[in-house]
Write a structure and sequence with these properties.
9 strands; globular; alpha/beta; two-stranded antiparallel ribbon
Length: 362
């Protein structure tokens, strides 16, 4: 394996990675995790370290050749892969991208005022994807070509709250929770059916060792909708996906941004998530979450994105060491950003975070 910018070489080991997530004791080394890297970051790292030399850009599975090469180079034990052709249609607004690794075509934001489903007529006319016809070509190719020391995380899926707010529009949803609860219920039930069928197909692949539910449910000071409404329309879907994962002897990871303190007990005891991802310093430091919940679930990431954008490499390394000292004992922690590797995070800071994790020994 090319060492690149890293002081310590790492070989993937998905079994040790899973043991860490299951809190089976302090792991021998740090395991890393990210929900995703922005494509611009991936391309920059591949360019810097010549990761795609010898790859055929015209190959229909070039994207997955690239993903495997990049994930191994960075020291991850997995790739994230899912079905193709299950995307929903939303209303999005484009804006210019001002990040250093600028995104061609700009960035897109959800329309919070109105979505494509605000009436029963729009619900009936909405083009819901046919999960039975969704392609598993990528999963099949990755299952065949992924090295044996890596696994697949099935996802990203289970966007029950996100899709509900995006399909209706956040403002429309807030009104509908009072005026059209039957329509909200119908959309929620349709989402449960869709994601149930998606996860059923993901779990049919032996190399899928865990499912990653991704569903932002909060903001800085609380949940996006009332906790009781989350319990009525959102958490049942996550509970079902967790039950399906556990029945197949797989893990269920949850990514969710926002302050979820009002429903954390529900997520742990009712939904039965195995791990929680996404932490922001202004809400809860991951080391505090480790103290609160680390004996019941794994905690993932937590090196704050805003911090990574503003800090020096020295400060990044110092924070990584302090975080690992607090979170590594007993297992149940994987190092990563507080959210994702966005294209406005300095690439050198991201690589410094990874390198310091490689250097650390429990």
């Amino acid at each position: 394996m090319t060492q690149g910018p890293f002081a310590v070489p790492v070989e993937p080991d998905w079994r040790a990675f899973r043991d860490c997530l299951e809190r089976k004791g302090t792991p021998a080394r740090v395991h890393h995790i990210e929900i995703f890297l922005d494509p611009e970051v991936e391309d920059e790292i591949c360019r810097r370290y010549h990761l795609l030399d010898g790859c055929d850009a015209d190959d229909p599975f070039f994207k997955w050749q690239k993903e495997i090469a990049l994930q191994r180079f960075l020291g991850y034990d997995y790739v994230v892969c899912g079905l193709e052709g299950v995307e929903l249609a939303f209303y999005r607004t484009p804006v210019a991208d001002t990040a250093p690794l600028q995104r061609t075509g700009g960035r897109y934001y959800q329309d919070e005022h109105r979505g494509p489903i605000t009436t029963w007529e729009e619900f009936e006319a909405y083009p819901w994807p046919d999960v039975a016809q969704a392609s598993t070509a990528a999963l099949e190719w990755v299952s065949e070509h992924l090295p044996e020391d890596m696994c697949i995380i099935g996802g990203l899926t289970g966007h029950f709250c996100e899709d509900l707010t995006w399909l209706m529009g956040y403002e429309t949803l807030c009104y509908a929770l009072y005026d059209q609860r039957d329509l909200v219920q119908a959309i929620a039930e349709r989402l449960i059916e869709m994601f149930r069928d998606i996860v059923k197909r993901l779990l049919a692949f032996e190399r899928v060792q865990m499912i990653w539910g991704t569903d932002d449910m909060g903001f800085r000071s609380g949940t996006l909708i009332r906790p009781d409404d989350l319990r009525a329309f959102v958490l049942p879907g996550h509970r079902l996906l967790a039950e399906m994962s556990h029945a197949a002897e797989r893990l269920y990871l949850l990514h969710s941004c926002g302050n979820l303190s009002a429903i954390m007990e529900d997520l742990i005891t009712e939904v039965r998530i195995d791990a929680k991802h996404s932490f922001e310093d202004t809400i809860e430091d991951v080391t505090e979450a480790k103290r609160r919940y680390g004996d019941r679930i794994a905690l993932l990431g937590g090196i704050d994105v805003d911090f990574l954008c503003r800090a020096s490499e020295t400060q990044v390394r110092e924070r990584v060491r302090k975080t690992l000292e607090a979170c590594m004992p007993g297992g149940g922690y994987c190092l990563g950003t507080g959210n994702s590797v966005a294209n406005y995070i300095p690439v050198n800071n991201y690589l410094a975070m990874l390198d310091e994790g490689r250097r650390y020994r429990p």
